[in-house]
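Example 3.2
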Amino acid sequence: MPKEVVIIGAGGHSKVVADIIIKSKDKLIGFLDDNLKIGSKIIENYQVLGKIEECFDLQKEKKELYFIIAIGDNHIRKEIYNKYKLNYYIAIHPNSNIGLEVQIGEGTVIMANACVNSGTQIGNNCIINTGAIIEHDNKIEDYVHVSPNATLCRYRKSRKIYTYRSRSYCKKQCSSKKRLYDRSRRSSSKRH
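Structure, written as tokens:
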């Protein structure tokens, strides 16, 4: 049975989340946003239903309704999540790759072509963006954003409310580069 989902926030990030909900064969109801007028069209025929605070009324009307916070700012996501105790949806794009024994917290979004390998734990309200790679046995804390194409290598514990930019974060890789550099310096000093 498809889940019915309301998106909190109606900016650019919310359009990507809407796409995930629709491609996951769940039912998008609409958007809640404090900065846009009711009826504002966001994507296709989906509109703003009201202000964010109206989530409680919607939840009372329909107990099986889900919500997802589609706001890129980690601190604002945390503030909304702590303020509104709701049924939170987990959005996983059908073209992402999720390994065995991966734990994903409520309200988290995993976008297209992201790869989350075995044994990884992802907290609540995280964004695992397009093409991000999270290797095995990582622990991603709540409200973390892993940017497009960022790579987190194994055995990493993230900070809370943090953004990993589009690059590699590999402790072992960095230390092995230093060892190679040290070896080459030692080799060149023996030649003189």
